[in-house]
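hey all, quick one before standup. I had two proteins in the batch that finished overnight and I want to keep them in one place so we stop losing track of which output belongs to which input. First protein below, input sequence then structure tokens straight from the run.
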Amino acid sequence: MSSSSITLGQHGPRMASVGYGAMSLTNFYGPCDEDQAHNVLTACVDLGIDHIDTSNVYGAGTSESRIGAFLAKQGSHAKDMFKIATKGGITTHPETGARCFNNALEHLEGELDKSLARLGVDCVELFYVHRREQERDIEDVTEGLASLIKKGKTKHIGFSEIAPDSLRRASKIHHIAAVQSEYSLSTRAPELGLVQACAELGTTLVAFSPVGRTFLTDTPMSYETGQSLAFTQKNPRFMQPQFAANIASTDKFRQYAADHGMAAATLAIAWLLHQGKHVLPIPGTRSVEHLAQAAAAMSVTLSADMLAEIEAILPVGWAAGDRYSTAQWIGPERFC
């Protein structure tokens, strides 16, 4: 059964059980200006969505800056409006300009300081290592993150795209409030250890791309649009013939959702909420209408029969193509 609220980690605040992924406040999935970004953030407030997930690299700081500008307009109401998570650790090599990862405390703290300035806050609710630097022991990285809590720059710490074993190692040093990973009806890999490890350790599993990068919505991205965007252009699931196969498979899911009187995105996120009380989906969108569809999942209860029927329509492994290309897989930890 789904719930309308969730606790962040073992000791964090109660938050709405659906958050918002603020990568969409940049041009990653298509053009988004500041007015549009602020309209979406206003809708978050109206819908009771209070967890906003961003990063220093989303639009090279644009996402954080737009959130900060929105908060600045709210005056005294801004302080308790959102529980913000941001990330650091992805950077570029100073000589080659190639994308790389730096988990050194000096780098992470410096990037967090810049994020705090863009957001216009003194402290964030949650600070993640965005990608793990394999050459650096995760125990040492965790100790560094814990020092940022002591300095009052973040209340909780987390990691993005790490394996269950890495989570267990880090958790021996300090409680990890959240691990972020792609998780949806189209990406089920977290069920092979990460969902279980998070439940065991009291860690919130923050599920990004919960509607399968639009495949699990009523208006999936067209092939032409996908080919116009840098990420999807080279993503195996958005290349032919995989793209056509994925549309055909999810057509049945869209019809099932319509037969039950709800948007496909609502049903997809409701399914995630039924996978564990510690699972927090963070859909991203530039559309207020689509955000409302996501929020509606908080009031949906799926019967055992419906869950079984959804599994029959989209069984484990249905998606055609890997979730990342070879280049996109650099950084996330594979564990199965």
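OK second protein, same deal, sequence then tokens:
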Amino acid sequence: MTLSKIPILLEKISKENLDKQILRTGILAELDAINLYEQMAELTENQDLKKVLLDVAKEEKEHVGEFQYLLLKLDTQQEKELKEGMEEVKELLGE
């Protein structure tokens, strides 16, 4: 498994966009961690280790939510597009 690399040079981001990019990078790191812990949990036969790995993955999911909350406060376009995407899927699924 290859972990994500920061897809941008943070030092080249405008001051007005820096915090948004930092939050998106944090979200990427947390998603990588979730994938890693869940994959390792699938590999192990040790139930104690599996339980701990899945618990840590759950905590990382919470971190995604924390970063996403702040990102949506800073980037109203992101918030609008997220809502529109959710509505599109609901419509496709007939919900």
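Flagging for whoever picks this up: The chain has three helices and no strands. The chain has one domain: 17-92.
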